[in-house]
Amino acid sequence: MENKSIPQPQSSLGFLGIIWESVKTTSRNRKLLVPILLLAFLSFSLLEFSQEHIQAPFIRDFVLQLAQHPNMRHDLRHKLDLITYRGALDDILEIIIVKHSTIAFSSITKLLFLIATVSSSYEAYTAKVLGPVDMFLKIRTSWKRALLTNFYMILITLGIIFLYVTSYGITTFLVAKSWSFFFSRAITLSIPVCYFYLSSLWMVSAVVSVLEEGFGGFKAIRRAAELTNGKRLQASLMMVPFLIADGVFFHLFRTLISYDLIRRTRWRAISICLSNGSGCLLKLFMFVVYTVFYHEQKTQLKVHKLSSHC
């Protein structure tokens, strides 16, 4: 006879189930998600337009000096006659400063976009309502955890890249030629697998750092690894369509920019709006998908632990 006191595990949602629940959650939470999406779109677009406007005179001046001094690249590479090229070096420095400032502000905008989307979607998925004041409080209390988690994931990513480069170098120079081809191809084939899994782990870690008090940095990453245990393949596969779509949009809009060089300003403006619009839509839905996945995995883990204790 079945013991009614023991919690019975529920069937977990598969890939399509997560996607369908995410669609329903997005529709149910549209009153909050639409303003969030518009704010993110406007912020990213304004940042990119500002970058274009600010660095345009420096780029024009650098191109002009490059035309006047054909040997500039050779001289700068070998550190020759730097006084003559002082203006060009200042232009390069200004362009770098503008670019890195834009990246910093874009990262802050993406972090706020993540926190607002994840927190509101989680409440909507669990049939709760999150008001603007509650969302502001959520952002204020979780941004440090999310920022710390992203910082540690960057370090982990850099460490894995270094490991791959080192392994490939050792394989190329030290392994016997008969095995070198096999090992180098095995390393190459493992790169997309590692990339998709690392991206999914990064996303789940970010969701954990937003929704769970006291979980940030490595603690959030370990928690994400625990939640994805047994579902790593599904978590990785959910990332595939988003990354492929992002790559397709990127190359499509790059083609749009270079389509007509005479009217490049017009195409550039259109490309910025389209790329940021599509990018924000993809990010928003990806955040919702991994929020639903997080909730399902958290529920399954909780039920499993209760069942093991009973």
Describe the structure.
By secondary structure, the chain is mainly α. The chain has one domain. The protein is built from nine helices and no strands. The chain has helices at residues 15-28, 30-68, 72-77, 86-125, 132-173, 177-211, 218-227, 232-258, 264-309. α4 packs across α6 (177-211) and α8 runs antiparallel to α9. The longest helix is centred in the last third of the chain and has 46 residues, at 264-309. The protein is globular and about 75 Å long.
Summarize the structure.
The chain has 310 residues and is mainly alpha-helical.
* Strand-residue proportion: under 5%
Taking pLDDT < 50 over at least 5 consecutive residues as the criterion, the unreliable ranges are 1-9
Please compute the radius of gyration using only Cα atoms: 24 Å
Helicity level: over 70%
Mean pLDDT: 83
Which sheet architecture does the biggest sheet show? none
Overall body shape: globular
Strand segment count = 0
Q: Helices and strands: which structural class?
A: mainly alpha
Count, helices: 9
* N→C terminal distance: 15 Å
Task: Domain count, please report it.
Answer: 1
Secondary-structure element order, as H and E? HHHHHHHHH
Task: Note the topology.
Layout: H1 15-28, H2 30-68, H3 72-77, H4 86-125, H5 132-173, H6 177-211, H7 218-227, H8 232-258, H9 264-309
Helix pairs in contact: 1-9, 2-4, 2-9, 4-5, 4-6, 4-9, 5-6, 6-7, 6-8, 6-9, 8-9
Summary keywords:
single chain; 310 residues; mainly alpha; 9 helices
